[in-house]
UniProtKB/TrEMBL annotation:
This is Cytochrome b. It is a multi-pass membrane protein. It comes from the Bacteria. It holds the Pfam family Ni_hydr_CYTB.
Length: 184
């Protein structure tokens, strides 16, 4: 097993993390907008970025299952290892569930779905007001659950870095190279 995360895994991790933060912020902001023109534009951006995240997470999981991942950080108790694994699994599940409930809101509203005005995506359900209400609730509660998971995850990463100093965060960051003779 490699001692640290590879460049591709790191790229997936940080791109997905940035997308999740952007999607949550845009989502909270866009529902408050009143101007119909900016509302349409920003909703379209939210949906396109969300579909991008779905595609990236599926590729990321495919990559993870076909490549070896680093072994657990040494010295971590079994319950803590299980907790970390549980949170990581839940983060993956929510990065798939959020785009799917978003897609369901869109389909049950009867709106077409386009990815950056380039690709037309199919509807995953017929127009249905009742199901639309349920999908909106799932999307909103799902977001707060995801936000809680992310907060716990980031707090754990910082705890490892500052207090345990066990290299957990460093192995998800590009390796620092020591080049002899290089300018300081
Ligand atoms: C991880 C991915 C996503 C996150 C974190 C996210 C987050 C959010 C948030 C925070 C809101 C505001 C909820 C509220 O206050 O009512 C929202 C609303 C919405 N999102 Fe997403 N979203 C994601 C993906 C998607 C995708 C892929 C689509 C569509 C294909 C989508 C469609 C919508 C729609 C239509 C609304 C408005 C719902 C309403 O009118 O109540 N979202 N999203
Ligand atoms: C500043 C923000 C973040 C920091 C500092 C951070 C840090 C880390 C670190 C250090 C790891 C590796 C843990 C290990 O080696 O055992 C990791 C893994 C992971 N992170 Fe983050 N992360 C952040 C944001 C996010 C966000 C926003 C998400 C998704 C919503 C996320 C999802 C994941 C997942 C799913 C893993 C597990 C990877 C795997 O085992 O396949 N992270 N994170």
């Amino acid at each position: 097993m490699p001692p640290r995360w590879g460049a591709v895994s790191q790229l997936f991790h940080w791109t997905c993390a940035a997308l999740v933060v952007a999607l949550g912020s845009i989502g909270l902001y866009m529902t408050e907008l009143t101007s119909p023109v900016s509302k349409i534009r920003i909703y379209a951006l939210h949906k396109s970025l969300g579909i991008t995240l779905l595609a990236l997470v599926l590729l990321r999981l495919l990559w993870r299952w076909t490549h070896s991942v680093p072994e657990p950080v040494p010295g971590l108790s079994r319950p803590l290892r299980l907790a970390a694994g549980g949170v990581h699994g839940a983060l993956y599940a929510m990065m798939i569930a959020m785009p799917l409930t978003g897609w369901l809101i869109n389909s049950t509203s009867g709106y077409p779905l386009q990815w950056f005005k380039l690709i037309n995506l199919p509807s995953i359900a017929a127009k249905n007001e009742h199901l639309n209400g349920i999908a909106k609730q799932l999307h909103e509660f799902g977001f707060w659950f995801l936000a809680l998971l992310v907060l716990g995850h980031v707090a754990a990463a910082l705890y490892h870095h500052v207090f345990l100093q066990d290299g957990t965060l460093n192995r998800m960051l590009p390796a620092r190279r020591h080049r002899p003779g290089a300018m300081p």
